[in-house]
Design a protein that fits this description.
two-stranded antiparallel sheet; 2% strand
């Protein structure tokens, strides 16, 4: 499958193929839900998504890997080294880190704004020193770099049928929705790292605080106030999913099954957290395998249908313009006359 993806994407340089394969391996190993959804994309677009995931994973591991034993200073220096590699790759195509080589190639192929990567690293650096947030407004500034820009990076790869600015609003919202779900699912593990991504004013609204969360994690004891906080956070998360939902229809048809599947699976984690009694401080909620399989099968059916329609368009004399609209094919001289090239 890797060879097929690389061939379809037109990636032929052996070193670059190895770099993309490295990214795909990271996605397959760490991003189970994300990787499953990625396989529903047209084969020529998958390598780019693997590269974007690989970069995010590389930075996240520097910041969050509990078993590395690295000090905050060592992590900060590792992020600076990664940023130097990023600049070398994006500006000069001289990066030696394989994941950065693949990322830089993807950025060039799809015209991805380099600021999205810089904003992402800014948020990663804040994780080395910031342990909590006062409000959703404060958290939102962090999530612009850590989550919203992921959706914005993905948008040129996925393609749209709507104006880019309109689609970007929903793409950014979906990135935020996914991360809010991660925060809820991983609240216990984040406490082990010394962080809490639930805003302090939300905790205060239900008569509790960070110390109570840490006590619950440490002792295994439950507290109704903590349950109320997690329930309220889940309701807020669902509202963000609702704001992101219209963006799926703004994607080109071939990309919709992938994002719809990710949407259903990630939002389903909230259902799993609810079914588990909001015990996320103590254990990670998991979407049942049968549910994951059913969603994946539905996505596969939709993906096959979208590709069938796409093939019909190619045979009836239309072409995809990249942002999702279609027009009749014309010869080279006619294309010049009509302003098509």
């Amino acid at each position: 499958m890797t060879v097929r993806e690389l061939d379809a994407a037109g990636i032929h340089d052996p070193a670059l193929r190895a770099a993309y394969a490295r990214c795909r391996g990271l996605n397959a190993h760490h991003g189970k839900t994300y990787f499953l959804a990625t396989r529903l994309l047209p084969v020529d677009r998958r390598a780019a998504v693997h590269a974007l995931y690989g970069f995010a994973r590389l930075a996240d591991d520097i910041v969050d890997e509990l078993d590395s034993g690295a000090t905050p200073g060592e992590r900060a220096r590792a992020l600076l080294a990664l940023e130097a590699q990023l600049k070398a790759g994006l500006r000069e195509n001289t990066a030696t880190e394989p994941v950065i080589r693949a990322l830089a190639d993807t950025a060039r192929r799809y015209g991805i704004d380099h600021r999205h990567f810089a904003d992402f690293l800014t948020s990663m650096r804040s994780d080395l020193t910031v342990e909590g947030y006062a409000s959703y407004e404060d958290l939102g500034r962090y999530m612009h770099g850590s989550a919203a820009v992921i959706g914005l990076q993905m948008l040129p790869v996925l393609g749209t049928v709507a104006p880019g600015g309109e689609a970007a609003v929903h793409a950014a919202a979906l990135g935020v929705a996914f991360q809010l779900t991660n925060f809820l699912r991983d609240v216990g593990e984040d406490l082990d790292r010394g962080r809490l991504y639930l805003p302090a004013d939300l905790l205060a609204a239900y008569g509790t605080d960070r110390e109570r969360f840490e006590w619950s994690r440490r002792t295994g004891a439950r507290d109704a106030r903590i349950t109320d906080v997690l329930r309220a956070a889940a309701a807020h998360n669902r509202a963000v999913y609702r704001s992101a939902l219209p963006g799926i229809a703004m994607l080109v048809p071939a990309s919709r099954p992938c994002i719809r599947t990710a949407f259903v699976l990630y939002s389903g984690i909230l259902d799993a957290i609810e079914s588990d009694g909001y015990a996320a401080v103590h254990r990670r909620a998991v979407v049942p395998r049968r549910r994951r399989a059913a969603v994946a099968l539905d996505g596969l059916v939709r993906a096959v249908a979208a590709r069938t329609v796409g093939r019909r368009r190619k045979t009836d004399g239309t072409e995809d313009l990249g942002f999702g609209r279609h027009r009749p094919r014309v010869s080279g001289t006619a294309a010049v006359r009509e302003g098509a090239v």
